[in-house]
Each structure stands twice: as structure tokens, then as C-alpha cells.
Specification:
By secondary structure, the protein is mainly α. The chain has helices at 2-10, 30-52, 54-83; strands at 14-17, 26-29. It is built from three helices and two strands, in the order H-E-E-H-H. A two-stranded antiparallel ribbon has the order 1-2. The longest helix has 30 residues, at 54-83.
Length: 100
């Protein structure tokens, strides 16, 4: 903040700005023109970045939906697996239980 204040003090001279031949000149301090240009440039850059990253945001939303779907399927399949008993010949090396 101190740097910006020092910049404004050192660049306080006024400059005439001509927007178009149809309008009168506007007198502005040099620091206002430079800081205004920086702010406009920052905002334009931020908008360009936001627009260019739209496909990433879309892909992230799709991945979240896919993760939710897969988690539901996993919970259903794990619930089904827990209720089913393996067949008796699933482990042939183990001795069979003798039923009385």
C-alpha cells in the first residue's frame, strides 16, 4: 500500500486524454491512468482465464457425477456380496464339513 501511495505522489502531474475527436479532452493525473489501466488489464486477464478454464470446470462436474454413480454401484455390490455365501466347493483344499 505504501508503494502505491509513493507511486501516486511521484506521478501526480496532469495529462490530457483524448477519447475521440467528437468529445472534449479529459485531464487526469498520470497515476490514475496507469493504475486504471492495470486494473482493467487484470480484470480482462481474469475473465479470459475464467472463460478458458470452462472445460475444466465442466469435466470436474462430470467426474463428480461419475464418482457418485460408482460409489452407489460399489455400495450395492458390496451389500450383495455380503449376503451371498460362497459355494461349498469354493475352497477345494479345505476339508468338507460333515453334516450330521
Amino acid at each position: 500500500m505504501l508503494t502505491i501511495a509513493g507511486f501516486c505522489i511521484l506521478n501526480a502531474q496532469s495529462i490530457n486524454v483524448t477519447w475521440s475527436p467528437l468529445h472534449d479532452d479529459i485531464t487526469l493525473p498520470l497515476y490514475a491512468i496507469i493504475l486504471g489501466s492495470l486494473i482493467v488489464g487484470f480484470l480482462l486477464g481474469a475473465c479470459a482465464l475464467w472463460i478458458n478454464s470452462a472445460y475444466l470446470r465442466k469435466e470436474k462436474r462430470q467426474q463428480k457425477k461419475q464418482i457418485k454413480t460408482l460409489e452407489k454401484e460399489l455400495s450395492k455390490s458390496s451389500a450383495n456380496t455380503n449376503t451371498q455365501k460362497p459355494p461349498s466347493d469354493f475352497f477345494p483344499a479345505l476339508p468338507k464339513k460333515i453334516e450330521s
